[in-house]
Amino acid sequence: MPKLRGEAFWRETLRSAHYVVAPMVDQSELAWRLLSRRHGAQLCYTPMLHAQVFLRDANYRRENLYGEACPEDRPLIVQFCANDPEVFVQAALLAQDYCDAIDLNLGCPQMIAKRGHYGAFLQEEWDLLQRMILLANEKLSVPITCKIRVFPDIDKTVKYAQMLEKAGCQLLTVHGRTKEQKGPLAGVASWEHIQAVRKAVSIPVFANGNIQCLSDVEECIRKTGVHGVMSAEGNLHNPALFEGRNPLVWEMAEEYLEIVQKYPCPLSYVRAHLFKLWHHTLQVYQQLREELAKVKTLEGIVDVNRELKLRCQEEIANQKEGEKPKEGLRFFHWICQPYIRPGPKERCKENGTSGTEKGVRGKRILEEEEDGNSELLSKNKQKKKLRNPNKSFDPSLKPKYAKCDQCGNPKGNRCVFNMCRGCCKKRAFKETADCPGHGLLFKTKYEKSLSWKHSQRGIQSPDMSQRGEAEVGEAADS
Fold it and tell me: Where would I find the DUS-like FMN-binding domain in this sequence (predicted)?
């Protein structure tokens, strides 16, 4: 059966999904997806998976996809970050039986994406992206989709989207911010860019950015004409966003913790979700915030959640008539509601700075301009500079490492196989070989063990002959 494309794919496979939970690293795991689906989400993405690691590591595949099969968790799109067509497609082939589409991440703006050369830092490499999508479209049995960020120029953004469509992309998610708009500099997403893309392509388009409540979803669809709307932070603070409800925080937290009992995930994921859900309450009860940060077990997290619930219920019982929410909140802090990220000026005031650009960006400026100027360095790097005044943070001066022939990680300078230590260890063990560069001596140890066994046989032989002579003597005496 030929795979569905474009509008037919969105309508039949994705069931005309309008409400979408974004791919979020360590945050859109199975338990959270199931909670979101119970409260209105119609389509979910996995967290961003690293194609290279997914391809070579069976444990990574099991932990992030294979071990999570759940009939309720469909339709589902698996997202990969990648920068090599063959690696991307091979990883996607291993994932395609567990999902309804494969998404290529072209939107991650974080520094780790810059270092790894993926996400939004591929948006200028159109030839590479065309090759990746063309190959995926040819080889995969499920459609290929893309999630992008915009360029400052609308026309360039439109041409970018059209290029991806022509290469074989069957659905496009457009985050209406540039790759520079992140953290305190995020600002407002441009729905004008999204609207222009929607008008210029014939494939389905999802919008991402500025989604904090259901009315935002409806307004975005009305203004841009997109097929669906994706939410990330809005969903984390209120999983019932797509229902148009603002439930009590502990209701969502308790339901999520129940799902985690059935579908376990790393404790760090659970803790992060509780920090988001209880964000406003934890500004009031700072001690419980510290306890949540330190707790080491799921049972401990459940206990902190229960204590937060009791504190809020006690506060509700003592509430005076006509009392209004504090700190500029729309609802009382125990009700699920969005967190409005402070802008640069507000962030400066919080930090006690003057509001200048230098004060706004703090250590983040170093991510883009590591030129060694101590005034622009983070506190941590300023300390390093004090210890070593000659130290430079200019990325152009960093040594370029040769890559491992097997996995692409930096190889050992003296490795006899031209590999990183992990790959070298596997090969040396398999071939019973030595690699002095990595301190692996499988051949030497094997030869020593053989030598020891031979020496043991030599020691045992005289003992046996002596024992035989003694037995003969005893027989003669008798």
Answer: 21-311
Task: Tell how strand 440-441 and strand 49-50 pair up.
Answer: unpaired
Are the C-beta atoms of 151 and 107 separated by less than 8 Å?
no
Does one domain contain both 217 and 286?
no
Q: Verify whether residue 312 is a known catalytic residue.
A: no
pLDDT tens-digit profile, the chain (478 residues) = 688 999 999 999 999 999 999 999 999 999 999 999 999 999 999 999 999 999 999 999 999 998 867 889 999 999 999 999 999 999 999 999 999 999 999 999 998 999 999 999 999 999 999 999 999 999 999 999 999 999 999 999 999 999 999 999 999 999 999 999 987 778 899 999 999 999 999 999 999 998 999 999 999 999 999 999 999 999 999 999 999 999 999 999 999 999 999 999 999 999 999 999 999 999 999 999 999 999 999 999 999 999 999 999 999 999 888 889 987 899 999 999 998 766 555 544 544 444 444 444 444 444 444 444 444 577 777 777 777 777 777 766 666 678 888 887 888 888 988 889 989 998 989 899 999 989 999 999 988 888 888 888 777 665 554 555 545 444 445 4
Domain that holds residue 298: 247-317+330-340
Catalytic residue among 44, 81, 99, 108: 108
Same domain membership, residue 147 and residue 58: yes
Domain match, 126 and 237 both:
yes
